[in-house]
Design goal:
Blueprint (H helix, E strand, L loop, with lengths): L4 H29 L3 E5 L5 E3 L10 E4 L2 E9 L2 E6 L8 E6 L5 H10 L5 H6 L17 H12 L3 E5 L6 H10 L4 E2 L7 H8 L5 E5 L3 H9 L5 E3 L6 E2 H11 L6 E2 L12 E5 L5 H4 L2 E2 L10 E2 L1 H16 L4 E4 L3 H15 L2 H6 L1 E2 L6 E9 L7 H10 E11 L1 H6 L9 E3 H11 L7
Parallel strand pairs: 7-9, 7-10, 8-9, 11-12, 13-19, 13-20, 16-17, 16-18, 18-19
Antiparallel strand pairs: 1-2, 1-6, 2-5, 3-4, 3-6, 4-5, 14-15
Helix pairs in contact: 1-2, 2-6, 4-5, 8-13, 10-11, 10-15
Length: 429
């Protein structure tokens, strides 16, 4: 028996409702096993955690029934943004909390009468023709997507892997006032709906995964664009990343090097000359995606100094590290130098971070051992177009990984001295 459009729409909406319920149950179960966070109130109004466990940035906590989200962690000092004003006691306990699923349910209700329900639930879209030729300084595949995005009356999906030019396309569309959802593949379908009910037409960009894959599968081909080109990178970087991945070089190209700190586009900052107690990693208090977590203050400081340098130089940068705890450490240190926590967090991530193409990528190994397969995957997801800098204990890492033979290796203190000569000391050590 044929399934009617009404039945398909109802099945779609009911499926999202079930997904929201399942996500909420999972979040409640996870919060029940999280430990509480006893604290004393610091002189600046932040919480100094006195127990064994410290919440991560982004964690949801409760104080006296008021929900909040951790916005910054400096060792044991925690800043929390609460949903409404609170009057914290001098000492107390932050309880693990669960994020509100009310926005998802409200968005689902709004979707029932929204213009984008047809495209999302049934792939039913309005006919359109791409906009006339426009000069946006884009590659041919980007330009095709750009022209369709300017004209589409409802929904367009742009699929492309790291380095395919999604970021550049999104910037060009935003400049034209087109609503975009970047990294839409990283959103669940309920979270994607929250973003979409705010607009009447949108362009979704990301890999063919997650909720985005579900949407793309329903839409006709004219509403789905695939970016297949990869931008060329300097030969040294391309060859190194190819060795990490055990594959042939892909899209190496000519490069005119311009960098005030490093002589070539591929460099390693070696921390092995520091005393062992300074250069070694430290265990994090919380597990990292089911495995032990680590952070490394010396590497975090250097990565932050380098990031601040490239920020001041107007270069597009990203920092990638293997552990969430190290990402939080690096983020806090960069924010202390340049400010702007939200934009900084967009440029720093652990191995699952997908930063696309950046002019400069800084990768910190954190520990004196590495899974180069993971490193290679991380550097494929966040690609260095001009400068790749790796930071770690080079002799220890290269002992079992001869692939780490690099054309330029400089000592930790030497690089810090170069940065101090180029930029005013930021006051971190």
């Amino acid at each position: 028996m044929a399934v009617s459009a009404v039945d398909r729409t109802d099945a779609f909406l009911n499926g999202i409702a079930r997904a929201i319920d399942a996500d909420e149950r999972a979040a409640v179960s996870a919060a029940r096993v999280e430990p509480p966070y006893p604290f004393r109130l610091g002189p600046d109004g932040r919480f100094v955690v006195t127990g064994a466990h410290v919440p991560d940035v982004g964690a949801v906590v409760r104080l006296g029934g008021v929900r909040g989200r951790v916005t910054r962690v400096d060792v044991r000092t925690v800043a929390v943004g609460f949903e409404r004003p609170v009057n914290p006691p001098l000492a107390g306990v932050l309880e693990p909390g669960v994020r509100s699923f009310a926005p998802q349910r409200a968005a689902l209700t709004a979707l029932g009468s929204h213009p984008l329900l047809g495209p999302l639930a049934e792939g039913r879209v309005a006919a359109f023709s791409p906009a006339a030729d426009v000069d946006a300084g884009l590659d041919p595949d980007q330009l095709d997507a750009f022209r369709r995005a300017l004209a589409v009356p409802d929904l367009l999906v742009v699929l492309g892997g790291p380095g395919s030019g999604k970021t550049r396309l999104a910037e060009a569309l935003t400049a034209r006032g087109v609503s975009t959802v970047d990294d839409a593949d990283r959103l669940s379908l309920p979270d994607l709906v929250v973003r979409l009910v705010r607009v009447e037409r949108a362009v979704l960009l990301g890999d063919a995964a997650g909720g985005l894959a579900v949407v793309a599968a329903r839409l006709p081909e004219c509403n789905v664009v695939r970016l297949t080109r990869r931008r060329a990178v300097p030969a040294e970087i391309a060859e190194f990343c190819a060795r990490l991945a055990g594959r042939h070089v892909n899209r190496a190209g000519p490069h005119v090097h311009r960098d005030a700190v490093f002589a070539g586009p591929l460099a390693f900052v070696d921390t092995s000359g520091l005393p062992a107690r300074r250069r070694r990693e430290r265990p994090a208090r919380q597990r990292d995606r089911g495995r032990p977590g680590f952070y490394n203050p010396v590497e975090a400081n250097l990565l932050a100094r380098l990031a601040a340098h490239y920020e001041a130089a107007g270069r597009d940068w990203a920092v990638v590290v293997p552990y969430a705890a190290q990402a939080a450490e690096v983020t806090a240190r960069i924010v202390a130098i340049v400010g702007g926590e939200v934009p900084v967090r967009r440029n720093v991530g652990a191995e699952d971070f997908r930063g696309g193409d950046r002019q400069v990528v800084l990768y910190g190994f954190t520990r004196d051992r590495a899974d180069l397969r993971r490193t290679g995957a991380a550097l494929a997801s966040t690609r260095a177009g001009e400068q790749l800098v790796l930071v770690g204990d080079l002799p220890a890492l290269a002992r079992d990984s001869p692939v780490l033979t690099l054309p330029e290796a400089r000592g930790h203190d030497e690089v810090l001295a170069s940065l101090a000569a180029l930029d005013p000391p930021p006051g971190l050590s």
